[in-house]
Amino acid sequence: QVQLVESGGGLVQAGGSLRLSCAASGRTFSNYAMAWFRQAPGKERELAAGISRSGGWTYYADPVKGRFTISRDSAKNTVYLQMNSLKPEDTAVYYCAADLNSPWTTIMVAAREYDYWGQGTQVTVSS
Asked: According to the 3-state scheme, what is the secondary structure of 9-20?
């Protein structure tokens, strides 16, 4: 089993920054790919950023590319999402997810491919 707990969400003005954290426990941190999904009211859950199993591959959705950075700290079993230059359209619940089955360098974009999920953390960007 893997437990994921997100933190770091909140209210920020447009142009500001937030850093989300996802603390993982239960399995070796390096044994799975990690991702941040987000879901705004009335919209489908979408992949915002992902990071592969050991190898350092990352993926960013076009709307966040150049503004968000996903990273991980193996010593702390934690994945981060640094969000800069935030826009009102970034407002959503952000979920941390773990994929235990993908190839070493692969990042899956579909939510159904992920095995474990955190509870979500709200990010609200005001104009």
From this structure: CEEEECCCCEEE
Residue 55, phi then psi, degrees to nearest 5: 155, -20
Q: What does DSSP say about strands 18-25 and 3-7: parallel, antiparallel, or unpaired?
A: antiparallel
Cα 67 to Cα 17, 70, 116, distances in angstroms: 9, 10, 26
- The one-letter amino acid code at 102 reads S
Summarised one tens digit per residue, pLDDT across range 38-65 is 999 999 999 999 998 865 799 999 999 9
Most distant CA pair in the chain, distance: 40
CA distance 75 to 19: 18
Write a three-state SS string for 30-43.
HHCEEEEEEECCCC
